[in-house]
Amino acid sequence: MAERQWMGTTFGNGWMHKALIRLLHFTPVYFLYLFTDIFIVPFCLIFNKSRKTAWDFYRRHLGFGFFKSCHLTFRNHCLFAQVVIDRFAMYAGKGFNVQIEGTDYFKQLEKRPEGFIQLSSHIGNYEIAGYSLVSPYKQIHAIVYSFEKESVMKGRDSMFTKTNVSMIALQPDMSHLFEIDKALCAGDIISFPADRHMEGGRCITADFLGKQARFPQGPFSVATMRGVEALAVNVMKEGLKKYRIFLTWLPYDKQASRKEQIRQLSEAYVRELERLVRLYPAQWYNFFDFWAS
Questions:
Q1: Is residue 211 one of the residues assigned to a domain?
Q2: What torsion do the CA atoms of 215, 129, 49, 79 make, to the nearest 10 degrees?
Q3: Beta-carbon neighbour count of residue 154 at 10 Å?
Q4: Which of 115, 227, 254, 284 is a plausible cystine mate for 184, CB 3.0–4.6 Å?
């Protein structure tokens, strides 16, 4: 049976992450790509439950044929390994060619006194947006999970110190809400992952690829509570060292009831997520039962 709950941490332990960063200081990323394609991915496909969740995604939810689903399951695991390597490569000081699509609305929003929300997803390599999409006018606060591995948090911190980005860690006592509210009152930008809900947290359901799926309510509640604008930010891998950032405005009626605002905003987010998943099906990295009841 597929895992029914996302665990919220990066695979591996601290010494593995540190060794990978040291290795990437002098090793081209494509050497590690080749190594993972030959040795790591086949092992995962044989022994890891991610094979089944990926297969089900392509066969049942996207409706692809048998052979295409097999190919995409393998390709999906290869690309996932590559974006993980790319993340640690950036911690090691390597750079990537990043193109941004849809900057006009972002530039308008960053010059306004009001803060706004960015909603990201676990497709492509969303973390690269935090290192590439910066504003000279506003500080960006990235919402992260407090129980992430220390090596990953240190890597993020070292990258964020080079940009106008800080981290707000989600806390069990919900104290992060005060930091988020303070940042929005100051006219800053809040960057949320909005496609994974944690056990016990409030969620909403939306039709995603033909079946009801659960999304965290928090990011949409924060945006509508303050009546701020929202952008979907997704970063897709397009080559060995090339990424494209998609910025998409998410409209909702700020005069509607709060419940209706949340519905409209979440629906706009889900439609954009669905659009990009269909464009880049191999870059769907939710290896658990996303549609679990």
A1: yes
A2: 140
A3: 15
A4: 115
Which of 68, 91, 114 is the endpoint of a domain? 91
Q: Same domain, yes or no, for 137 and 76? A: no
At 57, list the tokens. 């995604």
Cα 13 to Cα 6, 9, 10, 24, 152: the distances in Å are 17, 10, 8, 17, 10
Instruction: Look at phi and psi of residue 63 and say left if phi exceeds 0, alpha if psi is from -120 to 50, else beta.
Output: left
User: Coil, strand or helix: which one is 124?
Assistant: strand
What distance in Å separates the CA atoms of residue 65 and residue 48, rounded to the nearest whole number?
22
With beta carbons less than 8 A apart as the criterion, state whether 286 and 58 touch: no
The pLDDT > 70 percentage for the chain reads: 87
Q: 85 with 103, same domain?
A: no
Tell me the pairing of strands 242-249 and 229-239. Answer: antiparallel
Q: Nearest to residue 109, comparing CAs of 117, 98, 101, 120?
A: 117
Its domain, for residue 155, covers 97-281
Amino acid at 124: G
Q: Is the pLDDT of residue 181 over 60?
A: yes
- What is the model's pLDDT at position 1? 34
